[in-house]
Amino acid sequence: MKAKWKMPKSPGPHSPKLAPLETEIMEQHLLGKTIAAIHKWLKAEKEISIAFRIFTTSSIAVRKNIPQRRGLR
């Protein structure tokens, strides 16, 4: 017996900040335009992930009493 094919579920927006950009990308794609919004989406995604990484490492350092490095670059 063949397995039934199931349509994959949409993961939804990654964050509230990215939701409007995702809809803009889909609208541009459906209209057949070049997708300029994807660059904005990637930039926002990168900023969110960097901010999250900084937040989590600083909160771990505070909990463990580890001195933080100055200047992340």
Short key terms for the protein model shown above:
73 residues; flat; mainly alpha; 2 helices
DSSP summary, beta strand count: 0
Overall pLDDT confidence: 66
Overall, the morphology is: flat
Helix-strand sequence: HH
Cα Rg? 19 Å
Poorly predicted segments: none
Report the total helices. Answer: 2
- Helix coverage percent: 55-70%
Indicate the proportion of strand residues: under 5%
Major pleated sheet: none
N-to-C span: 57 Å
Helix and strand content put the structural class at mainly alpha
Give the SSE map.
Elements: H1 19-31, H2 37-64
Helix pairs in contact: 1-2
Structure notes:
By secondary structure, the chain is mainly alpha-helical. It has a domain at 19-64. 56% of the residues lie in helices and 0% in strands. The protein is built from 2 helices and no strands. α1 packs antiparallel against α2. The longest helix has 28 residues, at 37-64. It starts with 18 loop residues before the first helix and ends in a 9-residue tail after the last helix.
